[in-house]
Design a protein that fits this description.
With 276 residues, the protein is α+β, with helices and mostly antiparallel strands. It has two domains: 3-162, no CATH class; 169-269, no CATH class. It has five helices and 17 strands. It has an eight-stranded mixed beta sheet. A three-stranded mixed beta sheet has the order 13-15-14, with helices on one face. A two-stranded antiparallel sheet has the order 7-10.
Length: 276
């Protein structure tokens, strides 16, 4: 039986209350290998695509309620005073869990016209706007969570923002001390932007997998594509980094985001990448 629950703020012992019984809130979400990609903070999703996390029940940020079988009859019904304290809604549909974060803008308490068989004026009725698509779906049978925006679901799955890895100040300092980087006196770790801190975290993981020979080839590759964006000194084999934009192109190069089209030989930068 399909049911809709609400997670109520500040309730610790029994935080979930029943909203609706025997009701399907969202149309079924169907994903395939073609429109579902492993989460990467620097990947821009296509319109119909979703991020995914496999073996979700094994993650520290998985909700306890997703790890057990439960009986909907054990849940209390949401009371009117609790309506304004809903943190998110959870629609259980054919053993899958559909989640939607609830924000103040989705709570409607104004006078409205309701159009049904007749027009009815509703004055200050509490209403909650349901989105066309859920913010996240947990497929229990596959043990997989899908979502589109990590920031949106971070308040639902506490700790999931660990996936949005951002290099620490110490890690950025370590990266900027790489032998192939020459910093100007006016640019240092304190001026590295948050987006570039995220890219530094990815770049450090990539560099750790490269051999000395591959690192040397990487420098040639970056210079071939970025000579107009970042100055490269052939003698010292260093890139001169004077600002955040130059650092960005260097980081894109480490991630091999540049390529040449086979037809037309046009040089391009990939906005995001996906392994195939």
């Amino acid at each position: 039986m399909n049911n809709v629950f609400a997670k109520v703020k500040k309730l610790r012992k029994n935080p979930y209350c029943k909203l609706l019984s025997d009701f399907t809130l969202y149309p079924p979400v169907v994903v395939t290998d073609g429109n579902c990609v492993v989460y990467n903070p620097d990947h821009n999703l296509d319109e119909e695509a979703w991020f995914k996390i496999e073996a979700f029940s094994e993650q520290s940020y998985c909700l306890d309620i997703l790890k057990v079988d439960f009986d909907s009859k054990e849940f209390l019904v949401l009371t009117k005073p609790q309506f304004s304290s809903i943190a998110y809604i959870m629609s259980v549909q054919d053993s899958d869990f559909y989640f939607q974060k609830v924000t103040p803008s989705q709570m409607i308490r104004k006078k409205t016209l309701s159009f049904g068989d007749a027009v009815v004026v509703e004055n200050n009725e509490n209403r909650l706007v349901i989105n066309e698509f859920p913010d996240a779906v947990y497929f229990k049978g596959d043990d997989r969570l899908i979502f589109r925006d990590l920031a949106t679901i971070s308040s639902i799955f506490q700790g999931i923002d660990i996936l949005f890895k951002e290099a620490t100040k110490e890690e950025v300092t370590q990266f900027l001390s790489e032998t192939f980087i020459s910093l100007s006196q006016g640019y240092d770790v304190n001026k590295v932007s948050k987006p570039n801190r995220k890219r530094v975290a990815l770049a450090m993981d990539t560099l750790a997998t490269l051999s000395p020979a591959e690192k040397a080839e990487m420098l040639v590759y970056i210079n071939d594509y970025c000579r107009e964006k970042v100055s490269f000194d052939l003698e010292s084999e260093t890139f001169a980094i004077n600002n955040d934009d130059e650092l960005k192109y260097l980081l894109y190069g480490i991630e091999q985001r540049f390529y040449t089209t086979p037809f037309g030989q046009e040089k391009r930068l990939a906005n995001s990448v996906q392994a195939i």
